[in-house]
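User:
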Amino acid sequence: MPATILIGAQWGDEGKGKLTDLLAKEMEVVVRYQGGHNAGHTVVVDSERFALQLLPSGVLYPHITPVIGNGVVVDPKVLIEEMDALEARGVDCSRLVISGSAHLIMPYHQELDALTERYLGKNRLGTTKRGIGPAYADKAARVGLRVQDLLDPKIFRQKLDVVLKEKNLILAKVYNRLGLSAADIAGAYLDQYAPRLAPQIGDSVGLVHEALARGAGVLLEGAQATFLDLDHGTYPFVTSSNPVAGGACTGAGIGPRHISRVIGIAKAYMTRVGAGPFPTEVAGEEGDALVARGHEWGTNTGRRRRTGWFDAVMVRHAVRLNSLDELVITKLDVLDTFEKLKVCVAYEAGGKRYEQLPWHQSVLYEAVPVYEELPGWRCETTRVQHEDDLPGPARKYLGFLAEQSGAPISYVGVGPERAQVVALNVR
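Assistant: Predicted structure:
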């Protein structure tokens, strides 16, 4: 059975964790292939809420081997805390495999992340200040420490001494801050974190290929989303890795011929966290209603999400970038009370109409959405279990999203619970 990729088709927070959980019953391995603990996945099981940061959502299934792939950056303290919290609630984390080639987030990454963001002032990027960007920067600069280094104290200390000399110089000369202690860092990472994580560290690439060879289901789970991609997102307001489908191959260590299905997740409206362009953003009562009904606050950061109408121009581009086979629309129930709904089908800027995403960011900043208006259904959808039970205007709305996005819709979410998902065949 070839691998399936699951990606966000907007700016994140689309509900990937819930769908990963839904698909996991068909899988034996679930791989988180990029990002760090700056991305939260929320899964609700029997009214019990699980907020995951680093662990793949498949960890909630006892038959799944959850894998943290080589493309992830790992804060070992956060990972251990997350494992402990799940174990305390009866979730077995002993099956977890952490790629030895994944990179470590170090204390100086977090320090520099926070300082850089503060010094940018009004030009700040809106990062979570958790060291994700600096860790990926060190990876690219080839001075990063990897998870496998926890198993070799001599190599760990040698690498740490080299890189910390530079980081402390930056902290002192640029930011007027005291340097960090190599002994303190090594003590925490080697004496506390390494013994706890050592049983989980291994060859994730070999594990995934062995699963594929025996026909097991493998799910590649991305963090963040298409328009936070380092290359294809709304740069510079992006993450520091590649959440798009192409990044799954690199971050998990498999070739594209192993991929048979690519699923994109999109909300029935739009949200984003932090700064950056947002053509369909709405304020006032409509924006407040979307926040309130959708509980649009960051899983990890607690920040209020910006909200807006569904942007078919962006999702159309996500379909193209990721070769999406299908879309899953989440949070349809959030729109239950709206009398009228809007869908952006094009942009206008500089006297020109754009039906595809403008390649130049200056155009995107001045883009005015061209809306099609559709009637709302003004009734509750949270108890709907079958496609035929959806209100007529809701089916029409979903059909319009599929038509405008260029991909069929296979599922729609009508609430936070695991069971509140309706199978569809909307084209």
